[in-house]
Amino acid sequence: MDIVTPEDPVMTARALVLHDLEQTGVADPVSVSLLEDALSQRAWWLEQWPAGRQFVVGLVAQDVQDALLESAGRWPLCTACEEATHALYVDPDLGGPDPRWICEEAGLVVAPVGGL
Question: CA nearest 105: which of 114, 74, 84, 69?
């Protein structure tokens, strides 16, 4: 997938997380607004800590995941297990580098962020 553009980690995060929202059928006006809010906050965060570029994608994914938990429930649901009642989590915890969705119950890497 050639969505990643290291020149602008915020726009890269937008493209990758939006892709995952779309692929999981959750890309509605509410979730896209939550994504835009997360991007705005992380753009400010990145201005304060430019060395954090490699963490932005994973942190935005976590921000959206947390916001959706409060408004719509768990996201994204695990696709690796037969019972998809639990969510995937971003690994590494700080969001980067190379963030991926993992199933903590099965101990499996399911997809990179942006690869669902």
Answer: 84
- pLDDT digit string (tens) for the chain, length 116 residues: 444 445 899 999 999 999 999 999 999 999 999 999 999 999 999 999 999 999 999 999 999 999 999 888 999 999 888 876 899 999 998 878 899 999 998 889 999 999 99
* pTM above threshold 0.85: yes
100 token code pair: 């991926």
Backbone region of residue 11 per phi and psi (left: phi > 0; alpha: psi in -120 to 50; beta: other values)? alpha
